[in-house]
Every structure is written in C-alpha cells, then in structure tokens.
Amino acid sequence: MQQKKRIVLIDDDQTTNTLNKLIIERSKLVDEVVMFGEAEKALEFLRNEKSGQKSLILLDINMPYMNGWEFLNEYVKLNGSRRFDKIIMLTSSIDPSDITKAQATATVTDYKSKPLSFEMLESLVSEYLN
C-alpha cells in the first residue's frame, strides 16, 4: 500500500499558512495538509506520531518562541534516523547567511523563497514526495 502524501506547514503567519493550505488543497497533489502556527506544536505532532508517515515539511525561519533553526535542532532528536521527512525552508528571509546555513544543514532538503505558488508546489511534490 502506498503511503499518503502529506505536507506539514510551519509558519507563525496565519494568513500565509491559510493561503498555502488553500493552494495545496486546490492542487489535489497531496492527501493531507497539517498546519501549525508554532514550531513547538509541530514538533509535538511529529513526536507523537506512530505511523512513520513521511512528510514534506515547509518551514519558516523567522518565528517567535522557536524559530526554524531551533526547530531543526529539536527535530534531529525526534526519532533519530527513523524519520524520512523532507524539510524545505520556505521563507521570506533574504539574508545570504540563512541560505548558506540551510545549504550546510543536513536536515534541510531545499531552500525556497515565499510565496508558495502552484508551480513551486508541483515541483516540490514531484521531487520529494513521489
């Protein structure tokens, strides 16, 4: 049986999350979209998950409380090598050091600039969830 295709959105901006969810749902490219406004809640969700479901995680960098980099540090501790998620930094950051840091971080699969478009989504799903 083929695994469901799931995208996990992690962004403190509710408008961005809602628009991204709408784009993803209308695309019909994935089976499930899970949305979090706080990185801590996303970690809790992934930590408590029993299915071993692989996800495409779209992660913002600049968030209060726990930013994207802190999320990545905690994510590594989750299930060790048993997680097979693909993490895409989807951010409005134009700081070159963020791009460099993302490229040097093993858990980051790709770095994209907001906004999410249908074309970007199609490319990400095709490359990382198929």
Question: Could you characterize what this model shows?
Answer:
The protein is an alpha/beta fold. The protein has one domain: 3-Layer(aba) Sandwich (Rossmann fold), CATH 3.40.50. It is 40% helix and 21% strand. It has helices at 14-27, 39-48, 68-75, 96-104, 118-128; strands at 6-10, 32-36, 55-59, 86-91, 108-113. Strand 3 (55-59), helix 3 (68-75) and strand 4 form a beta-alpha-beta unit. The mean pLDDT is 92.
Provide a brief overview of the structure:
By secondary structure, the chain is α/β, with parallel strands linked by helices.
Blueprint of the fold:
Elements: E1 6-10, H1 14-27, E2 32-36, H2 39-48, E3 55-59, H3 68-75, E4 86-91, H4 96-104, E5 108-113, H5 118-128
Parallel strand pairs: 1-2, 1-3, 3-4, 4-5
